[in-house]
Design goal:
Blueprint (H helix, E strand, L loop, with lengths): L6 H16 L3 H7 L4 E10 L5 E12 L5 E8 L4 H17 L6 E7 L7 H14 L9 E5 L5 H15 L20 H20 L7 E5 L3 H12 L3 E7 L2 E4 L6 H11 L9 E3 L1 H5 L2 E7 L15 E6 L8 H9 L3 E3 L1 H4 L2 H14 L6 H26 L3 H20 L4
Parallel strand pairs: 3-4, 3-5, 6-7, 6-10, 10-11, 11-12
Antiparallel strand pairs: 1-2, 2-4, 7-8, 8-9
Bound molecules: nicotinamide-adenine-dinucleotide.
The site of nicotinamide-adenine-dinucleotide has 20 residues, from helix 7 and strand 7.
């Protein structure tokens, strides 16, 4: 994986690019370049062997001009302040592109959850929540799952917060299990949004999705859902992969069978009747749609000139480096950037929060219909900006997002 510039340096460069393009007032730019609040906590917990260990936890609240802070919590050994600051800024832009009434935030704990027991993870999550009790809240800052945190983690946060309040507060987090206030359709929401973007991009370019060749890197929550939904739309899924490598079949994979196999075998490579393929080879396949849905920095300046897809829909966060995006753009590849493409997840999180606040439970059809509307509108808005300024979809998404946040700041003014 290419080690690019620091993620937060990339954020500042994106803001500068937009400021220059839109000739923004330097005072407003100065205001949106700085996270509003950074909280760092030392979280002591008792490990299973009786030792006390102290973990570093972060919550970065980047911007709240458009609504309460919103963003996931990541548990990973590489979590550091620079990364969390960048992710918090990207959440701000993502919520603005999707036009949902949230600001942006991100949290994380530097830890290796693969080496921790469930009990240790529960104690870590509850203690971290207790230490952030005054920072989070349904109208203040609403966390969600991210890398190596899940619906169970959200339940621990909800329960800890609720215990302190003395009543159940489901709207303090999103990404909960359906039985405890989670939304129908949340699990597939990110994949559904990506599939909608692929469909809209194909429509824009005059490509027929029926029989279109699709390659998907990553077969987790996001990759599996995208592959399934594009298969149902009539696409030919020619390759999919997970961390161990991928499988390829020129005539298209039998996707339901692949999903069943992955569920049983835990990996893809032993699926019969197709060729093995590496993750690098998958990215370079000739196809209509490529969806990198695994990790960041997969398409870099080293391989961008070998990408042969007509459309790249960025399912993961940051799967292409800025330099790689530029190369693909110059080569006529239509790239749908991450802050638009994977915005379906936070959109359905917003639906979950809305349902919780009103003590409602929407059907899956209703959730999917509302998501469809939001995704198509966001895609059209970004495309309009791209045409108006004659820029790529990626630059257009940043222009749209940052100008929405800037508008909110200008209208709010500065007090005192
Ligand atoms: P996940 O953990 O469920 O799945 C990740 C997948 O990537 C797995 O199939 C794993 O085997 C595969 N993988 C890991 N290392 C790989 C490698 N070196 N090469 C190829 N594949 C590899 O995660 P997810 O929730 O599907 O998230 C994937 C990406 O989408 C992440 O960048 C995440 O931040 C982003 N994202 C997720 C959501 C969401 O709702 N889950 C929302 C927005 C963005």
């Amino acid at each position: 994986m290419e080690k690019g510039p620091s993620p937060f340096e990339a954020v500042l460069k994106q803001i500068d690019m937009v400021a220059e393009k839109l000739k923004l007032d330097p005072s407003t730019v100065e205001k949106i370049k700085h996270p509003r609040k950074i909280v760092i906590v030392s979280v002591p917990i008792k490990m299973d062997d009786g030792r006390i260990k102290v973990f570093t936890g972060y919550r970065v609240q980047f911007d709240m001009a458009r609504g309460p802070y919103k963003g996931g919590i990541r548990y990973h050994p590489n979590v550091d302040l620079d990364e969390i600051k960048a992710l918090a800024a990207w959440m701000t832009w993502k919520c603005a592109v999707m036009d949902i009434p949230y600001g942006g935030a991100k949290g994380g704990i530097t830890c290796n959850p693969k080496e921790m027991s469930k009990g240790e993870l529960e104690r870590l999550t509850r203690k971290y929540t207790a230490m952030l009790l005054d920072e989070i809240g349904p109208y203040k800052d609403v966390p969600a799952p991210d890398v190596y945190t899940d619906a169970q983690t959200m339940v621990w946060i909800m329960d800890t917060y609720s215990q302190f309040k003395g009543y159940l507060v489901p709207e303090v987090v999103t990404g909960k299990p359906v039985e405890l206030g989670g939304s129908e359709g949340r699990e597939e929401a990110t994949g559904r949004g990506i599939a909608i973007c692929a469909r809209e991009a194909a429509k824009h370019l005059g490509i027929d999705l029926k029989g279109a060749r699709v390659a998907v890197q990553g077969f987790g929550n996001v990759g599996k859902a995208v592959a399934k939904l594009l298969y149902e739309m009539g696409c030919k899924i020619i390759a999919v992969s997970d961390s161990r490598g991928g499988i390829y079949r020129a005539d298209g994979l039998n996707l339901p069978a692949v999903i069943e196999h992955k569920l049983k075998a835990g990996q893809l490579s032993s699926f019969e009747g197709c060729e093995g393929i590496t993750n690098e080879e998958l990215l370079e396949l000739e196809c209509e749609v490529l969806v990198p849905a695994a990790l960041e920095n997969q398409i870099t300046e080293a391989n961008a000139d070998r990408i042969r897809a007509k459309i790249v829909v960025e399912g993961a966060n940051g799967p292409s480096t800025p330099g790689a995006r530029q190369i693909m753009q110059e080569r006529g590849i239509f790239v749908v950037p991450d802050i638009l493409a994977n915005g379906g997840g936070v959109t359905v999180s917003y639906f979950e929060w809305t349902q919780n606040l009103h003590r409602e439970h929407w059907t899956e059809e209703e959730v999917n219909r509302k998501l469809e509307e939001k995704m198509v509108r966001a895609f059209d808005n970004v495309l309009e900006v791209a045409k108006k300024h004659n820029v790529s979809m990626a630059d257009a998404a940043y222009i749209l997002a940052i100008s929405r946040v800037k508008d909110a700041h200008e209208k709010l003014g500065l007090w005192p």
